[in-house]
Design a protein that fits this description.
The complex is a heterodimer of chains A (641) and B (253). Chain A has 16 helices and 19 strands. With 641 residues, chain A is α+β, with helices and mostly antiparallel strands. Chain A folds into three domains: 307 residues, FAD/NAD(P)-binding domain; 134 residues, Flavocytochrome C3, Chain A, domain 1, CATH 3.90.700.10; 96 residues, Fumarate reductase/succinate dehydrogenase flavoprotein-like, C-terminal domain (Methane Monooxygenase Hydroxylase, Chain G, domain 1). In chain A, the strands form five sheets. Chain A has a five-stranded parallel β-sheet with strand order 5-2-1-9-17. A five-stranded antiparallel β-sheet of chain A has the order 11-15-14-12-13. In chain A, strands 16-10-18-19 form a four-stranded antiparallel β-sheet. The radius of gyration of chain A is 24 Å and the shape is globular. In chain B, strand 6 and strand 7 form a beta hairpin. In chain B, helix 3 runs antiparallel to helix 5. The chains are: A alpha+beta (641), B alpha+beta (253). The complex binds flavin-adenine dinucleotide (FAD) and FE2/S2 (inorganic) cluster.
């Protein structure tokens, strides 16, 4: 356990308010005429990759964009519902860049880098300007000015939204800008292409290997830099709110080529999701956090109370969030709300068929603002809930339970968003930066767009302006070797010809992860999980069955590759959770809690980022540390009481 | 309340190995699926069964499974996404079917959406239409302070109504002419309602429609089948608006 020379965070000098301007000023530039000479590979077109592609295309680089979706518009970002934060202070309720910075550091339980978070808060205001200019139809007041709502972990209204479809509208804004660059031939789009490896030449990222999902053809592409905006890895749990195809392959392949993995165990479990109803279930659906603005969370006071919620009088209901956390009430941060729901259900006060659910009740809101008022704010979410459950939430309280939602962990990056492989930049949910051990609601969209529109373009110019990058052809030995590796792997999946499907392994992995590395973790469980995952992996490689061939659209083959990587990442997550002997944010180790059951950090030993370095298959990875310094916001136990 | 009733369904599924293959319907029976499961989860069960028998699973596109990404696309008993109003295939649940029902499942059929395999079609024509003008041409860094351009609430709401399109292609699939007018008009209408979209208004409508024609989508004959099939409730009035925009564009040029 040590710091590592490659873990240089490259934080700029100066006061936190000046750091980003200082960095922009110090950065090298690439003049417009020279930009066309540089090829930039971008993988992913979610908010992060989409906004980066549009920006770098506009700037005049030759961008090659790869996505496994049939269109960039389908990236998982499309599903974000609730909103995006920005420190505009339009509501005159005391918001500022500093306060958003403060809330994010505190919300992340003091496990994020101050400099990065400050920059995020700083550029948040530009994001809203940019998106409004693109024609994103944000919600408006009667005055025509932009409207805001509240999200968890904040006592003011700084969240901008477009009904319950904020992610969709922001993504379509970025997608429009990106498609304009495709039209102008600055961006070459490779849809239906899955990246399966990074090509490293002389220690620098110089290309990728991709498989054309329609034809099965596997090819290499070279460039001067590679940017990954490939999203999070919540699907390691099988059941999560992530889109079904979301996966860790791009990040994992980069890890195996030398990119360190930061805080892999930091997972966000979202408190308000539709509960699991059966073993056929393929995914979980989020009910946006914005619902906690008006919905009240409760369980019956009596254990095992099977009465219909309507028959339970007020005096026999426990509005436990309002009771335990009077200052923030129903709007406590996600990790706190999720653990509280679990605690209630563990005590036997859970509701519904399985007892693994709590109520989110809009009865009071309907009384206060009427059914129409509620419908205007949340109509599409209510509709969605009714479609899934068959219950009408205007009449019956919603039943909700926590579910895996987001991964704060990801590839380690420095202040410039560069990984430990020079020339490999990582943006959006795929990197580990900014959210520490817990992300506040409406901050992922902000981060994705901040990285793509406002940060990575500067970093890329600085990198390209400062490096000598001799051309690399696809005949280079490194390209040939990476190509052969990928082809070999695909053949391997097809040739095992065992009996079990990729999905069936994925479900089993998910269960191990949820039971032992989910909302509550402990030493014995994590140790067992590591052994179980190793066994499952062996079984996978000897008994997997993938029908069909590699030369066609083969969705089972795609899944097999993703599950194989999840089976390795899952183990790393358990290792990371095991080594982090404290509780912080979404990482709750049962051994480390206050007498009231709140997370107990160990600042002396763990005020650092754990960055894992791959050491070879079958070898234990090395854990390095990047120490975190808090010069502005003083380390304190979080309190939302 | 969720019921955990099991049901058996008979399926007639379009199987087509690749673009060149002729394709045909194949009959399957899925037993013991939970009524609370979604339509796609039922297809997962079918595929798991097929794979266990060593057969190839049915290829179908999907991702979010909550009605927003626009990936899932299939005709269910002749209706795009099935006959539940304002519902995508992934949001359709088996409780709306009866035990023993026979269900016919086909891909979108349109000249502009060639079949790739089974139920998966190529919808890249939609991307090319957007490329032709479905945006505001603003570069990063150019934007004025967001509140410096107020937008009347009803305009923002109208823009949002149109912007809710998920690009799934149901409108094309349901239209007997395979016209893409609803899709195109939704984007044109979103921008036409906003001050930011004004300078490029005429050019946008003209270019997007020209691209649509080039992609070999059919002509619109105003039957309204698209509106009925749209899982997001995009209104036919958008097409009327697009026609006005085109007329305006003509006057301008
Ligand atoms: C249901 C839901 C609701 C949410 N609501 C909110 C909210 O209200 N506010 C908020 O701030 N955040 C929200 N989030 C979180 C937020 O949506 C995500 O963190 C964010 O959108 C991630 O964006 P991204 O650009 O990093 O990645 P993604 O949007 O996941 O995009 C990943 C891209 O990478 C591509 N890709 C990945 N791997 C490969 C590969 N190997 N080869 C080729 N292409 C690849 C994909 O095709 C895709 O284009 C929500 C998340 C969920 C699940
Ligand atoms: S899978 Fe996304 S809309 Fe159906």
């Amino acid at each position: 356990m040590s710091t590592h020379p490659r873990l240089d965070s490259k934080i700029p000098s100066g006061d936190v308010e000046k750091k980003w301007s200082n960095r922009k000023f110090e950065n090298k530039l690439v003049n417009p005429a020279n930009r066309r000479k540089h090829t930039v590979i971008i993988v992913g077109a979610g908010l992060a990759g989409g906004s980066a592609s549009a920006s770098l295309g506009e700037a005049g680089y030759r961008v090659k964009l790869f996505v496994y979706h049939d269109s960039p518009r389908r990236a998982h970002s499309i599903a974000a519902q609730g909103g995006i934060n920005a420190a505009k202070n339009y509501q005159n309720d005391g918001d500022s860049i500093y306060r958003l910075f403060y809330d994010t550091i505190k919300g992340g339980d003091f496990r994020a880098r101050e400099a990065n978070v400050y920059r995020l808060a700083e550029v948040s205001v530009n994001i809203i300007d940019q998106c409004a200019a693109q024609g994103v139809p944000f919600a408006r007041e009667y005055s025509g000015y932009l409207s805001n709502r509240s999200f968890g972990g904040s006592q003011l209204q700084r969240t901008f939204y477009a009904r319950g479809q904020t992610g969709q509208q922001l993504l379509l804004g970025a997608y429009g800008s990106l498609m304009r660059q495709v039209e102008e031939k600055n961006v070459e789009l490779f849809a239906f292409h899955e990246m399966l490896d990074v090509i490293v030449v002389d220690g620098k990222a110089r290309g990728i290997v991709v498989r054309n999902l329609r034809t099965g053809e596997i090819t290499t592409h070279t460039a001067d830099v590679v940017i990954l905006g490939t999203g999070g890895y919540g699907n390691v749990f099988y059941l999560s709110t992530n889109a079904k195809k979301s996966n860790c392959t791009a990040a994992w392949r980069a890890y195996k080529k030398g990119a360190f993995f930061g805080n892999p165990c930091f997972t966000q479990i979202h408190p308000t999701c539709v509960p699991v109803s059966g073993d056929y279930q393929s995914k979980l659906t989020l009910m946006s956090e914005s619902l906690r603005n008006d919905g009240r969370v409760w369980v019956p006071k009596a254990k095992g109370d099977k009465r219909s919620p309507k028959d339970i009088p007020e005096s026999e209901r426990d509005y436990y969030l309002e009771r335990i956390y009077p200052a923030f009430g129903n709007l406590v941060p996600r990790d706190v709300a999720s653990r509280a729901a679990k605690a209630m259900c563990d005590k036997g006060q859970g509701v519904g068929e399985t007892g693994l659910a709590v109520y989110l009740d809009f009865g009071d809101a309907v009384k206060r603002i009427g059914k129409d008022g509620v419908a205007k704010k949340y109509g599409n979410l209510f509709e969605m809930y009714e479609k899934i459950t068959g219950d009408d939430p205007y009449e019956v309280p919603m039943r909700i339970y926590p579910a895996v939602h987001y991964t704060m962990g990801g590839l380690w990056v420095d202040y410039n968003l560069q990984s430990t492989i020079p020339g490999l930049f990582v943006i959006g949910e795929a990197n580990f930066s900014d959210h520490g051990a817990n992300r506040l609601g409406a901050s992922a969209l902000m981060q994705g767009l901040a990285d793509g529109y406002f940060v990575v373009p500067y970093s890329i110019a600085n990198y390209l302006g400062g490096e000598k990058l001799p051309p690399v052809s696809t005949d280079h030995d490194a390209c040939k070797a990476a190509l052969a590796d990928v082809k070999g792997r695909v053949q391997k999946f097809l040739s095992i010809k065992g009996k079990q499907t990729a999905d069936s392994f994925h479900r089993r992995l998910g269960k191990i992860m949820w039971d032992e590395c989910g909302m509550a973790r402990n030493r014995a469980g994590l140790t067992k999980a590591i052994a179980d995952i190793q066994k499952l992996r062996e079984e996978f490689w000897s008994d997997l069955f993938v029908p069909g061939t590699g030369e066609e659209l083969n969705q089972e083959l795609e899944k097999a590759g993703r599950v194989a990587d999840f089976l390795e990442l899952g183990e790393l997550m358990c290792r990371d959770a095991l080594e982090r002997e404290e509780s912080c944010g979404g990482h709750f180790r049962e051994e480390y809690q206050t007498p009231e059951g709140e997370a107990l950090r160990n600042d002396e030993k763990f005020t650092h980022v754990a960055a894992w370095e791959y050491q070879g298959d079958g070898k234990t990875p090395a854990r390095h540390q990047e120490e975190l310094k808090f010069d502005y916001i003083h380390l304190a136990q979080r309190s939302y009481k | 309340m969720t019921t955990s009733k099991q049901m058996t369904l008979k399926l007639k599924v379009w199987r087509q190995k690749n673009a060149k293959d002729q394709g045909r319907f194949v009959d399957y029976t899925v037993e013991g699926v939970n009524q609370a499961a979604s339509f796609l989860e039922m297809l997962d069960v079918l595929n798991e069964q097929l794979i266990r028998k060593g057969e190839e699973p049915v290829a179908f596109d999907h991702d979010c499974r909550e009605g927003i990404c626009g990936s899932c696309a299939m005709m269910i008993n002749g209706c795009a996404h099935g006959d539940m109003p304002r519902t995508t295939a992934c949001q359709l649940h088996l409780r709306h079917f009866n035990d023993g029902d026979t269900i016919v499942i086909e891909p979108w059929r349109a000249r502009a959406f060639p079949i790739i395999k089974d139920l998966v079609v190529d919808r890249s024509a939609f991307d090319r239409i957007i490329s032709a003008g479905g945006y505001v041409s603003t570069n990063v860094g150019n934007a004025p302070e967001a509140n410096s351009i107020p937008v009347p609430q009803q305009d923002a709401e109208a823009a949002m109504d149109a912007a809710a399109c998920i690009g799934c292609g149901a409108c094309v699939a349901q239209c007997k002419n395979a016209s893409a007018m609803l899709f195109v008009s939704a984007k044109v209408s979103q921008m036409a309602h906003l001050p930011q979209g004004q300078p490029e208004r005429a050019r946008r409508a003209r270019n997007m429609v020209a691209q649509m024609d080039k992609e070999k989508f059919g002509a619109c004959s105003n039957t309204g089948a698209c509106e009925a099939a749209c899982p997001k409730g995009i209104k036919l009035t958008n097409i009327a608006l697009l026609n006005r925009e085109l007329a305006r564009a003509q006057v301008k040029s």
